[in-house]
C-alpha cells in the first residue's frame, strides 16, 4: 500500500512517515499543496493523508481539484481544524475520512486500514479474504483453523496489497509501485523472490502466475 | 424619546404665534393712530368752520350762528361737541349736543401731536382738541370733542377678525409643515424600516439612500456591518491558524511522549496528563472564541440545506454504524444567526445523538413568531433525569469511555447562551435523549412561555 502523505510540519511529517513505514506502508511525503495535487494524479497511490493548512495551495482546494478531475483517490484529512463547519466542508469537498489533530498513531492507522478496506468493498473489522486473516498489528497471517504465521515486512506489504485487490491481475511494475516509495529496490526480479516466499507460507495456489501479465491473488 | 416631527411642529407654532402677536399689536397701534389723526384733522377743520360762525349777538354776548354749524352739533349727545370762551369772560358757550355736560378742560392722555387728548366721559372715549384763535382782537379759546367709540369698536372687530385669520393661517401652515416634514423624513423612516429588515436578516445591507442627509448614515451602517463581518472572518482565520500552529507541535509532543513511554513509563504518564490538559484547554477556548453570537445583523440561515450537509457528514463520520437520520424541518425555519454557529451547534448535538443512538436519530424544527424550536432525539440509552442537570450545568462527560457529550455539550450551551436561547434535555419518545433548543428570532425576546408550552404540541 503506497501512501501520499501531505504534511508541511517539518517535525511531524518525517516522524509520521517513519511511523507509517514501520506499519508496512510505502510513504511519499509532500510538504506543499502544489506538489501534493500533482502527485495525487499519479496512479500509484492507494490512499492520501492530507493536511489542510498547506503552503502553496490550501488542502481543501487540492482535494476539490482532484475530485473535479474525477480522481477517486481515497483521502483521509488530518488537520488541526476541528470545527464542524470545517469537517462538513472537508466531507463536501470529497474527503473519505476526517481526523483532528492531536491524534494517536493507532487511531490514524486504524482509520487508514478501515478506509482501504472500505474502498475495496471489504466489510468487517479486519482484513479477511478467502479464509486468510491478515493481522495488521502483529503483521502476521492466520490461515483458517491454523496457527498464525509471521511475515517479513515486504511479505506483509505484498500480501496486504494482494488481499486488498483479490482476483485482479497485478503486474510486477504495479506491485513495485505500491510497495516501495523510492527506486532503491524496484528491480522487478525481487518481486518474484518475494512471491515465492509468500507462496511457501500461504500455499502455492493462492497466487497464480499469468505469463507476460503478472500475478492474481485467488480468493 | 422625542420625535423630530413634534419638536419641529411645536417650534413652528411658537414662532408663528410670537410673530403674529407682534404683527397684531403693531398693526392695531398704527390703525388706531391713523384713525386718531383722521379725527384730529376733521376736528381741526371743524374748528375753522366754528370760528367763522362765532358772532356777537345784539346784547354784546357771543353766540354761534346756527346757520353755519353742522346739524350734529344741534343733536343732543350726537357724539360731536364743542365749547368756546371769548376774551377774559369766564363763561363757556356750549354746543347744544352737549346738553348739560361740558368738555373737561384737563385730564386724559395725550395722543398724537397738536395737544390731542383722549379721555373718558361716561365710559366713552372722547378725543378732545383745543384751539386758540384771535377773533376781532379777542382771544377765542375753543374745545372740540368727538366720541370715538365707533373707532374702538371697529378696532375690536378688526382684532377678532384678525385673530380668526391668524388661526386659519396657522392651521393651514401647520398642516403644510407636517406634510413637508413628513415627506422630508420619509427617507429616514424608510431607513429605519430597512434597518429592521437588516436585523431580521431579510436583507444583507442597506440599499442606497436618496437624500444627501441620510446617505452618510446608510454608508456608515453598511461599512460597520461589513467591517464587523470582516473582523469576524479575520479572527476566525487567525484562530484557525493558531489552532493549526499550536496543535501540530502538540501532536509531535504526544508522539515523543509515546516514544518515552517505552523507556520511562512514569515520566511519560505525567507528561501525557499535562499534554492532555493543555489540549483540552486549547480546544475549549478555541471553540468558544469561534462563536460569533447574535451580534451581527443580517443573517438568516435556512436549516434544511445546512442540515442536509451535516447529515451527509454524520453518515460519513459514523459510517460503520447503520444509522437512520430523519429530518423534519418546516420549510420556513431559519436560524437567526451565523452559519458556523448553527453548524457547530447542530454538529455537536447530532454527533452526540449518533454516538449514542442504536439505529435512529431524528431532528425536527419549526418556527413560530417568537423563536426557532429545534429538537434532536435518539433511540439510545438516554440520560437519567438527575444526570441531565449535571450535563447541562457543567458540560460534564458522563461516560468517559465514549468521547462526546462533554465538551460538545458545553459548546452547545455556550452558543445557546450567546443567542439568548433556552436549552432543555428530556426523554425522547424514541427512547433516548431529546435535546430541545429554543432560539429567539430577535435578540431579547422572552422565551419562557414557549419553553413551557405543552410538549405534546410538538413540531409537525
Structure description:
- The complex is a heterodimer of chains A (219) and B (460).
- With 219 residues, chain A is an alpha/beta fold.
- Chain A has two domains: 2-119, Response regulator (Rossmann fold); 127-217, Winged helix-like DNA-binding domain superfamily/Winged helix DNA-binding domain (Arc Repressor Mutant, subunit A, Orthogonal Bundle), CATH 1.10.10.
- Chain A has helices at 12-22, 33-41, 59-68, 84-92, 105-119, 153-164, 172-179, 188-202, and strands at residues 2-6, 26-30, 47-50, 75-79, 97-100, 127-129, 132-135, 140-143, 149-150, 169-170, 207-210, 214-217.
- In chain A, strands 2-1-3-4-5 form a five-stranded parallel sheet, sandwiched between helices. A four-stranded antiparallel sheet of chain A has the order 6-7-8-9, covered by helices on one side.
- In chain A, α2 (33-41) packs parallel to α3 (59-68) and α6 crosses α8 (188-202).
- Chain B has helices at 4-53, 149-200, 215-263, 265-290, 303-317, 339-356, 385-394, 407-418, 448-451, and strands spanning 54-56, 62-64, 80-86, 93-94, 109-110, 117-121, 124-135, 138-147, 301-302, 324-329, 334-335, 360-367, 371-378, 422-427, 433-440.
- In chain B, α5 crosses α6 and α6 (339-356) runs antiparallel to α8 (407-418).
- Chain B folds into three domains: 4-154; 201-290; 299-460, 2-Layer Sandwich (Heat Shock Protein 90), CATH 3.30.565.
- In chain B, the strands form four sheets. A six-stranded antiparallel sheet of chain B has the order 4-3-8-7-6-5, covered by helices on one side.
- In chain B, a hairpin with a 2-residue loop joins β7 (124-135) and β8 (138-147).
- Chain B starts with a helix and ends in a 9-residue tail after the last helix.
- Chain B is rod-shaped, with a radius of gyration of 50 Å.
- Chain B is α+β, with helices and mostly antiparallel strands.
- The A-B interface holds A 9, 11-12, 15, 19, 52-53, 79-88, 91-92, 95-98, 101-105, 114, 118 and B 240-241, 243-252, 254-255, 258, 279, 283, 286-287, 290, 309-310, 312-313, 316-317, 319-320, 339-340, 343-344, 346-348, 351.
Amino acid at each position: 500500500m503506497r501512501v501520499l502523505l501531505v504534511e508541511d510540519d517539518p517535525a511531524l511529517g518525517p516522524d509520521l512517515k517513519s511511523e507509517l513505514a514501520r506499519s508496512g506502508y510505502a510513504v511519499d511525503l509532500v510538504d506543499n499543496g502544489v506538489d501534493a495535487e500533482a502527485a495525487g494524479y499519479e496512479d500509484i497511490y492507494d490512499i492520501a493523508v492530507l493536511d489542510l493548512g498547506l503552503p502553496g495551495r490550501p488542502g481543501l482546494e487540492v482535494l476539490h481539484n482532484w475530485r473535479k478531475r474525477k480522481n477517486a483517490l481515497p483521502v483521509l484529512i488530518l488537520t488541526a481544524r476541528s470545527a464542524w463547519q470545517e469537517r462538513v466542508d472537508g466531507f463536501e469537498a470529497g474527503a473519505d475520512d476526517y481526523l483532528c489533530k492531536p491524534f494517536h498513531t493507532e487511531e490514524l492507522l486504524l482509520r487508514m486500514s478501515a478506509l482501504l478496506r472500505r474502498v475495496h468493498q471489504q466489510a468487517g473489522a479486519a482484513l479477511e479474504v478467502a479464509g486468510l486473516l491478515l493481522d495488521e498489528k502483529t503483521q502476521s497471517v492466520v490461515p483458517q483453523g491454523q496457527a498464525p504465521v509471521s511475515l517479513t515486512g515486504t511479505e506483509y506489504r505484498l500480501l496486504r496489497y494482494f488481499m486488498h485487490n483479490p482476483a485482479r491481475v497485478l503486474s510486477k511494475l504495479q506491485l513495485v509501485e505500491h510497495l516501495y516509495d523510492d527506486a532503491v529496490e524496484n528491480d522487478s526480479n525481487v518481486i518474484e523472490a518475494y512471491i515465492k516466499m509468500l507462496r511457501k507460507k500461504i500455499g502455492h495456489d493462492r497466487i497464480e502466475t499469468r505469463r507476460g501479465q503478472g500475478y492474481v491473488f485467488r480468493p | 424619546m422625542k420625535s423630530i416631527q413634534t419638536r419641529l411642529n411645536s417650534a413652528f407654532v411658537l414662532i408663528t404665534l410670537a410673530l403674529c402677536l407682534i404683527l397684531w399689536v403693531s398693526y392695531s397701534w398704527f390703525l388706531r393712530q391713523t384713525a386718531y389723526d383722521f379725527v384730529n384733522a376733521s376736528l381741526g377743520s371743524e374748528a375753522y368752520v366754528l370760528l367763522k360762525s362765532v358772532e356777537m349777538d345784539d346784547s354784546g354776548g357771543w353766540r354761534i350762528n346756527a346757520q353755519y354749524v353742522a346739524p350734529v352739533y344741534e343733536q343732543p349727545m350726537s357724539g360731536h361737541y364743542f365749547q368756546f370762551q371769548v376774551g377774559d369772560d369766564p363763561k363757556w358757550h356750549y354746543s347744544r349736543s352737549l346738553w348739560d355736560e361740558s368738555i373737561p378742560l384737563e385730564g386724559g392722555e395725550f395722543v398724537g401731536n397738536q395737544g390731542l387728548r383722549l379721555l373718558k366721559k361716561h365710559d366713552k372715549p372722547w378725543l378732545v382738541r383745543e384751539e386758540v384763535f384771535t377773533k376781532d382782537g379777542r382771544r377765542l379759546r375753543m374745545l372740540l370733542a368727538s366720541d370715538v367709540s365707533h373707532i374702538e369698536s371697529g378696532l375690536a372687530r378688526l382684532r377678532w377678525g384678525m385673530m380668526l385669520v391668524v388661526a386659519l393661517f396657522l392651521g393651514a401652515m401647520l398642516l403644510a409643515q407636517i406634510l413637508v416634514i413628513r415627506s422630508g423624513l420619509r427617507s429616514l423612516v424608510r431607513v429605519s424600516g430597512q434597518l429592521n429588515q437588516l436585523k431580521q436578516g431579510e436583507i444583507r445591507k442597506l440599499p442606497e439612500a436618496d437624500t444627501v442627509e441620510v446617505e452618510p448614515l446608510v454608508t456608515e451602517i453598511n461599512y460597520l456591518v461589513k467591517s464587523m463581518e470582516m473582523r469576524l472572518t479575520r479572527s476566525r482565520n487567525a484562530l484557525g491558524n493558531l489552532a493549526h500552529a499550536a496543535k501540530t507541535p502538540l501532536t509531535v509532543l504526544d508522539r515523543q511522549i509515546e516514544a518515552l513511554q517505552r523507556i520511562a513509563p512514569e515520566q511519560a504518564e505525567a507528561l501525557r496528563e499535562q499534554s492532555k490538559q493543555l489540549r483540552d484547554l486549547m480546544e475549549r477556548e478555541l471553540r468558544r472564541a469561534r462563536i460569533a453570537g447574535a451580534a451581527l445583523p443580517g443573517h438568516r440561515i435556512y436549516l434544511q440545506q445546512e442540515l442536509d450537509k451535516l447529515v451527509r457528514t454524520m453518515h460519513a463520520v459514523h459510517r460503520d454504524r447503520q444509522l437512520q437520520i430523519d429530518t423534519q424541518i418546516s420549510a420556513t425555519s431559519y436560524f437567526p444567526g451565523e452559519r458556523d454557529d448553527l453548524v457547530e451547534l447542530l454538529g455537536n448535538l447530532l454527533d452526540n445523538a449518533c454516538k449514542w443512538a442504536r439505529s435512529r436519530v431524528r431532528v425536527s424544527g419549526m418556527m413560530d413568531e417568537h423563536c426557532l424550536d429545534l429538537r434532536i432525539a435518539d433511540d439510545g440509552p438516554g440520560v437519567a433525569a438527575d444526570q441531565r442537570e449535571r450535563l447541562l450545568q457543567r458540560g460534564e462527560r458522563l461516560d468517559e469511555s465514549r468521547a462526546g457529550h462533554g465538551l460538545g455539550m458545553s459548546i452547545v450551551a455556550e452558543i445557546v447562551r450567546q443567542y439568548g436561547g433556552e436549552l432543555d434535555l428530556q426523554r425522547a419518545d424514541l427512547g433516548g435523549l431529546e435535546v430541545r433548543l429554543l432560539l429567539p428570532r430577535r435578540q431579547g425576546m422572552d422565551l419562557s412561555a414557549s419553553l413551557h408550552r405543552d410538549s405534546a404540541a410538538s413540531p409537525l
